[in-house]
Write a structure and sequence with these properties.
The complex is a heterodimer of chains A (311) and B (249).
Chain A lengths: L1 E5 L9 H10 L4 E8 L3 H8 L4 E8 L8 H11 L5 E5 L2 H13 L5 E4 L1 E2 L4 E6 L4 E7 L4 E5 L16 E3 L9 E8 L12 E5 L13 H7 L2 E4 L1 H5 L20 E5 L5 H4 L7 E6 L12 E4 L2 H14 L1
Parallel strand pairs in A: 1-2, 1-4, 2-3, 3-10, 4-9, 5-9, 12-13, 12-14, 14-15, 15-16
Antiparallel strand pairs in A: 6-7, 7-8
Helix pairs in contact in A: 3-4
Chain B lengths: L1 E5 L2 E3 L21 E3 L1 H15 L5 E8 L3 H11 L3 E6 L6 H15 L3 E5 L10 H9 L3 E11 L2 E8 L2 E8 L2 E5 L11 H7 L4 E4 L12 E7 L8 E3 L2 H10 L5
Parallel strand pairs in B: 1-4, 1-6, 4-5, 5-11, 6-10, 7-10
Antiparallel strand pairs in B: 2-3, 7-8, 8-9
Classes of the chains: A alpha/beta (311), B alpha/beta (249).
């Protein structure tokens, strides 16, 4: 059995969710990885260092510069005959392209797996994680996206796999990249951070998210938000943690002014330690929090920043 | 242009689902059902495009048991013009849904299909991408803004790092994200009017599609519940416990 994992990368490094997808694939058999982009030889080199990877496939072409689903799917379909499993992390990019590949192969994709039982059988959350379904695929080939938070990522270094450049098939030209507006932040990415601090409706404004910054600085944390805070325009969409936003499982998750709707819990309840700060002691977030502090966040946040300074 | 909008009947998003004791699925008997929230956003976007004079006709489609006709009625009350129900008792998975929708697209020849990015029951996030593949159309997934110009469509997408804008040729597939719009409530007169709008009834066989599921559900269980921990009295106590008890900072 050989699996091919499409890697998320930034042109030079392999992103942590992709390293979790490699960890999931290693439970299935031999693992090859695919690096796609334009001028991404450095990323292919980084991919070769992932422990356990047997081979790196590199597809370097101007048409892949922005990971558009249509050409990327055509490439994956051209490589599919060699593989039993095709995988990617369930990131925005993975979720965009893998189902397209599956349909072209006449396969029912298996989205967002949280556990590998055997080569055909997987566990995946449904209903915002309120139920776990074990599903067995009858398709000859499996097309899978991986819930990164459920698999410890392989290390970034330690392996030494050869890089093979693959032929680029005829690519469809029905879509074109126009622009990107990416959030710039010095902080770790939400899905890779050891500590995540999220604000909710209780923050009352985007300006007030500044109160979280010194705490995030001190803890090396990523900053997230509930859907309510994003919908209210306090912070950009890519901050959203939840069923339809990002799924995170950091060592420490701090929920500030977040009531704890099931859709939000779906995105963070696998965190190792959860802290909730909320002035409403009945807030459902306290039912999943290891440490709950009933307090006015406008008082508690400056105190927390000061207390951490003492450390 | 004609727009096709598929709508799915799902357990209402406010319902706390319960796993059946025999482990075959979640309890849906006697549970409030609604239109998938992302599909409401899809219907709303289509209706707005008609109000702007960009769309000429909106066809709402639902696939599943007879009760899915209610979901189509909801779309008609929001402003869709007519409905198509593909009736089956089979547990439809995204591949089968995409094949049925492709057959309908071949018949109806829409310029645009708008789908919810994900159904809140199976959380698959797959049907739109699969339909685009089967039709050989481009896809604009996780859309937060649509702009029509000349013969094309630009879609602003919610991606992991922020927003990305792509230009697509038409016909195209769009899947909706949360910030695309805020769906309207149907007014009572529109609900009354919707009762008179036509719904065509088809079977998968009429469309030449075998809807047999490819994924067998072996079992469904409840996840391990987190236990509520302890309340702390002060910020100082919180920091002390995180340092010495949880050892995470």
């Amino acid at each position: 059995m050989t699996a091919l994992v499409l890697l998320d990368h930034d042109g030079s490094a392999i992103k942590q969710p992709a390293r979790s997808a490699v960890a999931a694939a290693l439970k299935l058999g031999e693992v090859h990885v695919l690096v796609v982009g334009h001028n991404v030889a450095a990323a292919a080199e980084a991919a070769g260092k992932l422990p356990g990877v047997a081979k790196v496939l590199l597809a370097d072409h101007a048409a892949f510069a922005h990971a558009l689903a249509e050409p990327l799917a055509a490439l994956l379909v051209s490589l599919a005959p060699r593989y039993d499993h095709l995988l990617a992390a369930a990131t925005a990019a993975g979720k965009n392209v893998l189902p397209r590949v599956a349909a072209l192969l006449d396969v029912q994709p298996i989205s967002d797996i949280a556990e590998v039982i055997d080569a055909d059988t997987f566990v995946r959350p449904i209903y915002a994680g309120n139920a776990l379904a074990t599903v067995r695929s009858s398709d000859a080939k499996k097309v899978i996206t991986v819930r990164a938070a459920s698999f410890d990522p392989v290390a970034a270094e330690g392996g030494s796999a050869p890089v093979e450049t693959v032929a680029v098939p005829d690519l469809p030209a029905m879509s074109r990249f126009v622009s990107a507006e990416l959030s710039r932040s010095e902080r770790p990415e939400l899905t890779a951070a050891r500590v995540v601090i999220s604000g909710g409706r209780g923050m009352q404004s985007g300006e007030n998210f500044k109160l979280i910054e010194p705490i995030a600085d001190k803890l090396g944390a990523a900053v997230g938000a509930s859907r309510a805070a994003v919908d209210a325009g306090f912070v950009p969409n890519d901050y959203q943690v939840g069923q339809t936003g990002k799924i995170v499982a950091p060592d420490l998750y701090v929920a500030i002014g977040i009531s704890g709707a099931i859709q939000h819990l779906a995105g963070m309840k696998d965190s190792k330690v959860i802290v909730a700060i909320n002035k409403d002691e009945e807030a459902p977030i306290f039912q999943v929090a290891d440490y709950g502090l009933v307090a006015d966040l406008f008082k508690a946040l400056p105190e927390l920043a000061a207390e951490l300074e003492k450390g | 242009m004609k727009i096709l909008v598929p709508v799915k009947r799902v357990v209402d998003y406010n319902v706390k689902v319960r796993v059946k004791s025999d482990g075959t699925g979640v309890e849906t008997a006697g549970v409030k059902m609604s239109m998938n929230p992302f599909d409401e956003i899809a219907v709303e976007e289509a209706v707005r495009l008609k109000e702007k004079g960009i769309a000429t006709e909106i066809v709402a489609v639902s696939l599943g048991i007879a009760a899915c006709a209610e979901t189509i009625r909801t779309a008609l009350a929001m402003g869709a013009d007519r409905g198509i129900l593909v009736e089956t008792d089979v547990d439809l998975q995204p591949l089968a849904v995409a094949k049925l929708l492709k057959a309908l697209a071949d018949r109806e020849q829409p310029k645009l299909m708008i789908l919810g990015k994900q159904a809140i029951d199976d959380d698959m996030n797959a049907t739109g991408q699969m339909l685009a593949a089967l039709l050989g159309w481009p896809q604009g997934t996780f859309a937060s803004k649509l702009t029509f110009e000349n013969d094309g469509l630009t879609v602003t997408r919610e991606v992991d790092g922020g927003l990305e804008t792509v230009a697509l040729t038409l016909p195209a597939i769009v899947t909706t994200d949360l910030r695309l719009n805020e769906p309207r409530y149907a007014s009572l007169p529109n609900i009354m009017k919707a009762r008179k709008k036509p719904i065509e009834n088809l079977k998968p066989a009429d469309l030449g599609v075998d809807p047999t599921p490819r994924l067998k559900v072996v079992k469904v269980v409840e996840p391990v519940k987190r236990k509520a921990g302890a309340k702390v009295a002060s910020v100082a106590e919180l920091v002390m416990k995180l340092r010495t008890e949880a050892k995470v900072i």
